[in-house]
Design a protein that fits this description.
The protein is mainly alpha-helical. The protein contains six helices and no strands. The protein has a single domain, classed as Alpha Horseshoe (Serine Threonine Protein Phosphatase 5, Tetratricopeptide repeat), CATH 1.25.40. One of its GO terms (cellular component) is nucleus.
Length: 127
């Protein structure tokens, strides 16, 4: 989360710098696309992303229009795949590996999305 805030602050600083040098107003600047915001939350540069970041990424999908349905489905799959890959699954061992696995970002994200009745849950047959 801290890395995400730093990335957002860097992006904002870059926008302010560009605005200052190009005499642009914020009103004429386009919004940051959902895909870029998702990358800020769960991309490779944010190595500390947790279930909250993945949930925010899923929530951003709801802002995408109906015309972007294919891209939305692609991003949904990408988000869930990144959640699965966030943890080192080979480290979940011991007397009860299921309890260990419940600490994984993927399971925490599923619990969070389910508890908030997220419409971006993915059918398990696709995983």
């Amino acid at each position: 989360a801290h890395e995400t805030l730093r990335n957002l602050a860097d992006k904002e600083s870059a926008l302010l710098s560009r605005k200052k040098h190009s005499n642009l107003s914020f009103d004429s600047m386009p919004p940051i696309p959902c895909e870029e915001l998702i990358q800020l939350y769960i991309g490779d540069k944010n190595r500390n992303s947790d279930e909250q970041d993945f949930k925010k990424a899923l929530d951003l999908l709801q802002l995408m229009g109906e015309a972007e349905i294919d891209q939305k489905e692609h991003l949904k799959l990408m988000i869930w795949c990144k959640a699965i890959l966030r943890d080192n699954w080979s480290s979940f061992h011991g007397s009860n590996p299921l309890d260990s696995a419940r600490q994984a970002v993927f399971f925490k994200t599923v619990q969070l999305a389910y508890s908030q009745v997220n419409v971006c849950m993915i059918p398990f047959k696709l995983i």
